């Protein structure tokens, strides 16, 4: 091998091994600095923040899902005065970049300790059935049918259900029932929430909050899970009903 | 004395008072413009076009952006310009109306003349309009600009959207009462270029006083929510929003040069401060669309406005004590100095300087308290597409600590030695942010 190309190979290897990670770290630091407002509740990399246990983690959630939520707070499909206040004058391009940043962070789906009361054996069994199999008689699909068998979410539009505080999940399902959280029509989660009883919502939320994954469990790849119900929010994810 | 003669005496005594009342009423009626504002021109034929070539419509669109029609006439996530946004005032809640050319619920049947008339006089086929609509400013617009605006609105897709009913208390609920309001407070004045000033200055004043309707937030309010001439751009608490708008004049804007101020208007950031709250909204939906020339014209005019008298200093309250100042300084260095610097100078466009920042020099501390409580993000604009953000501290610091750090910063960089109290902060907890 002539010396020149040996040197260029060495340079290339150096770039891959040292410069690229360094550049990525710098880009991450830059985003972390810009997103200081988000870190107060969600943590610098979206891993969650101490003392802010109600708020969902963002790290490693699918970028399409995160973008849809940011747009929802801006455009009135989701209600959180604090979130709307911070994102209301952001354009789609910046929202897309923010979503991509959090999506690229290492997921953290440990059990969310919110001090939820333990479930009775009956309710625990019922919750697990709803999560794994759904309730065919009531027309409720299983959580796992869309969010993945391990409930770690599916790229690019379905979020993980593990690692969320029970209070947060209860509030979201309540929001769908009341119409204050809305997805793009057809709003599959609103249908699901309206078919669940309040007792079952609580049971499922508590059960989910007690599940745990090792750090770094990523959402399932795009196309690996086909949703059994029509979800407008997944139109961009090319999921057919 | 007979009953008849008693009545005659009473009539004699009363007559001068009645005449005086009529004379005063007549004079006030004349001052608000006489009968002319109430002579609404006839409706159009439903589909009237106003010189609707593409260039005119494009110019109308630019003017609609400068006038920020869409911010008031659009709900969150709703059809642009289809109205329905609620405005909470001291007199109740008022909803904006549908500006799209739908016949039943919008401007579909309006004629060009009716549009011109409503814009200039605040009176339409529906009666006298509530003064949340800035007709006192729009009265300055030229026929050409009003017609371009109308042409643009006519070019929109008609949206069926009836405004929700207003919820106002009597007498504000009765539009006739607005004639009385106008008699007491409204003084239309002709608007003409000042030949002693440059065309650029005149263009700037036309945009500031006309379409820009800056006075709606930056004017000092007088009796019954009015905007008297003597409070012209003198600043104050914005009605219904819970934000303070600073005066706009040569002293307030001395920290900017014209180019920096023009840049701030278009980008929402500058080395002298960033736009937050309602001003972020104005930049995001309106000012970021300004041409370079128009932004420079506005900045030129704004910096020429003679300084308003400074508000009288509060001599009753005690200035910040040494212990509280020490506590505030410690908190500042722990939570704020990384971005804003120990010296309060900030860092370029990323972290605004606190030295002479509006929120710190303002007599009203509400902006500073709100920004510390709930954080803030300047708008995304072409020149600042990836804004830095200020984190919220509501969940991190107690009200007493927020009071201490805001008091310290106001004393250090705002020449405002009167401290903010823990109660002042507590009152803003849970304030409606939208």
UniProtKB/TrEMBL annotation, chain B:
Keywords: Cell membrane, Heme, Iron, Membrane, Metal-binding, Repeat, Signal. One of its GO terms (molecular function) is heme binding. Its cofactor is heme c. Binds 3 heme c groups covalently per subunit. It holds the Pfam family Cytochrom_C. GO terms for cellular component: plasma membrane. Heme c 1 binds at residues 69, 72-73. Heme c 3 binds at residues 336, 339-340. It is found in: Cell membrane. Residues 55-157, 199-306, 323-413 form the Cytochrome c domain. Signal peptide: none annotated. The keyword Signal applies. Heme c 2 binds at residues 214, 217-218. InterPro entries: Cyt_c-like_dom, Cyt_c-like_dom_sf, Cytochrome_c-type_DH, Membr-bd_ADH_cyt_c. This is C-type cytochrome. It comes from Tahibacter soli.
């Amino acid at each position: 091998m002539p010396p020149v190309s040996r040197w260029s190979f060495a340079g290339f290897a150096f770039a891959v091994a040292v410069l690229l990670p360094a550049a990525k770290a710098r880009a991450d630091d830059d985003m972390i600095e810009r997103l200081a407002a988000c870190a107060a509740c969600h943590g610098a990399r979206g891993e969650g923040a101490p003392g802010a246990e109600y708020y969902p983690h963002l790290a490693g959630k699918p970028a399409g899902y995160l973008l849809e939520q940011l747009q929802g707070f801006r455009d009135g499909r989701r209600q959180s005065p604090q979130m709307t206040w911070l994102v209301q004058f952001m354009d789609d391009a910046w929202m897309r970049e923010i979503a991509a940043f959090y999506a690229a962070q290492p997921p953290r789906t440990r059990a969310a300790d919110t001090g939820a009361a333990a479930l009775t054996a009956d309710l625990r069994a019922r919750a697990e059935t709803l999560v794994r199999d759904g309730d065919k008689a009531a027309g409720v699909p299983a959580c796992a049918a869309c969010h993945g068998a391990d409930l770690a979410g599916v790229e690019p539009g379905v979020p993980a259900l593990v690692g969320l505080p029970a209070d947060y999940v209860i509030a979201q399902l309540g929001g769908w029932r009341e119409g204050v959280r809305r997805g793009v029509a057809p709003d599959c989660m609103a249908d699901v929430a309206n078919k669940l009883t309040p007792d079952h919502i609580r049971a499922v939320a508590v059960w989910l909050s007690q599940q745990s994954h090792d750090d770094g469990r990523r959402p399932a790849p795009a196309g690996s899970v086909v949703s059994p119900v029509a979800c407008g929010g997944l139109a961009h994810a090319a999921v057919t009903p | 004395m007979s009953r008849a003669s008693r009545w005659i005496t009473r009539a004699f005594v009363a007559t001068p008072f009645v005449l005086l009342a009529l004379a005063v009423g007549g004079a006030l009626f004349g001052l608000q413009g006489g009968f002319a504002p109430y002579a609404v021109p006839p409706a159009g034929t439903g589909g009237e076009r106003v010189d609707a070539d593409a260039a005119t419509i494009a110019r109308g669109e630019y003017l609609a952006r400068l006038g920020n029609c869409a911010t008031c006439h659009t709900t969150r996530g709703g059809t642009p310009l289809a109205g329905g946004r609620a405005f909470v005032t001291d007199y109740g809640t008022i909803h904006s109306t549908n500006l799209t050319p739908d016949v039943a619920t919008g401007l579909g049947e309006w004629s060009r003349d009716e549009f011109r008339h409503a814009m200039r006089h605040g009176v339409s086929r529906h009666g006298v309009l509530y003064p949340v609509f800035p007709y006192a400013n729009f009265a300055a617009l030229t026929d050409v600009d009003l017609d371009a605006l109308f042409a643009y609105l006519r070019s929109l897709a008609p949206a069926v959207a009836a405004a929700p009913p207003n919820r106002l208390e009597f007498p504000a609920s009765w539009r006739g009462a607005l004639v009385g309001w106008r008699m007491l407070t409204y003084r239309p004045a002709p608007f003409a270029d000042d030949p002693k000033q440059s065309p650029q200055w005149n263009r700037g004043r036309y945009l500031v006083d006309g379409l820009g309707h800056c006075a709606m937030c930056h004017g000092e309010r007088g009796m019954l929510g009015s905007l008297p001439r003597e409070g012209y751009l003198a600043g104050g608490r914005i009605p219904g929003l819970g934000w303070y708008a600073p005066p706009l004049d040569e002293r307030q804007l001395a920290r900017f040069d014209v180019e920096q101020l023009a840049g701030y208007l278009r980008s929402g950031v500058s080395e002298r401060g960033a736009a937050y709250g309602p001003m972020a909204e104005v930049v995001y939906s309106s000012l970021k669309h300004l041409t370079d020339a128009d932004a420079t014209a506005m900045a030129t005019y704004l910096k020429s406005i003679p300084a308003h008298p400074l508000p009288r200093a509060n001599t009753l309250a005690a200035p910040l004590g040494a212990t509280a100042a020490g506590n505030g300084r410690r908190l500042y260095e722990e939570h704020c100095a990384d971005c804003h610097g120990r010296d309060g100078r900030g860092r370029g466009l990323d972290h605004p300087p606190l030295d002479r920042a509006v929120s710190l020099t303002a007599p009203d501390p509400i902006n500073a308290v709100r920004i510390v409580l709930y954080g803030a993000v300047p708008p995304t604009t072409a020149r600042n597409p990836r804004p830095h953000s200020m984190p919220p501290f509501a969940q991190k610091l107690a009200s007493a600590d927020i009071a201490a750090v805001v008091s310290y910063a106001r004393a250090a960089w705002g020449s405002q030695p009167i401290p903010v109290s823990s109660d002042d902060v507590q009152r803003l907890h849970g304030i409606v942010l939208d």
